[in-house]
Design brief:
Layout lengths: L7 H4 L4 H16 L7 E6 L6 H14 L4 E5 L7 H5 L7 H7 L7 E2 L5 E4 L8 H5 L2 H11 L4 E5 L8 H6 L4 E7 L5 H13 L4 E7 L11
Parallel strand pairs: 1-5, 1-6, 2-4, 2-5, 6-7
Antiparallel strand pairs: 3-4
Length: about 220
């Protein structure tokens, strides 16, 4: 399946939804004026709330705005970015971590200034890898090659992966699905992140009416 089947920002850039992603991009840029935001984790409270598509479209929009953008698939349990962009999943992030490779196996994202780092072979211990010092070195390497690095992480409540990774980044963005995400789950996810001093920069509403499909607040 081609990327345009998934990415509204490429398939229909003039649509209200694509415009909402540009609004989200603007809000994130303004939020980083006083507090640098060069690494951002995107997650959700629970599975199937649209986080992977959200961060993919955000990455496209960031690159379209002239920012060198790297999108990293850190969902080492159910990776989706390689499917969304139609690229191989291996080599990827886990390859870079385990082989201690300095050169990231980046893949062109089909948009100028956008690169993808797929998940790579799935490990038996995702949380250990994402919480390791080696992961910190990987983050530093990626930061040196881009203006912003976006991380697609597993749901916060389901596993500890997102929290471990978020503690190493500049901030986190929470994806909430209209009519699906339970209010208490969203609140719990926010509290879990803030408990470990993660800067939650806001939330994105998905699966709502067309005129407000993605709202940042």
């Amino acid at each position: 399946m081609s990327s345009t089947d998934h990415l509204i920002t490429l398939a229909d850039p003039q649509s209200p939804v694509a415009e909402s992603f540009r609004t989200l991009r603007t809000n994130l840029i303004f939020s980083s004026l006083d507090h640098p935001l060069t690494t951002l984790l995107v997650t959700s409270a629970a599975p199937i709330e649209g986080k992977s598509l959200t961060v993919a479209n955000l990455a496209v929009t960031m690159a379209q705005g002239g920012r060198k953008t790297i999108l990293v698939d850190c969902d080492l349990r159910r990776p989706r970015q390689h499917e969304i962009f139609g690229v191989p999943s291996d080599p990827g992030l886990t390859t870079m971590i385990l082989d201690e490779t300095q050169e990231p196996p980046l893949v062109a994202g089909g948009v100028q200034d956008l690169w993808l780092l797929p998940a790579g072979p799935l490990p038996p211990n995702p949380a250990d890898l994402l919480g390791s010092r080696r992961m910190e070195a990987v983050i530093a390497t990626l930061k040196s090659r881009a203006d912003i690095v976006l991380f697609d992480a597993p749901p916060v409540i389901a596993v500890t992966d997102a929290a471990l990774l978020a503690s190493k980044l500049d901030g986190a963005l929470l994806v909430v699905s209209a009519g699906q995400t339970k209010r208490d789950h969203a609140q719990r996810a926010k509290e879990l992140l803030e408990k470990i001093n993660v800067r939650v920069v806001g939330a994105v509403l998905t699966n709502a009416a067309v005129d407000k499909s993605v709202n940042a607040y």
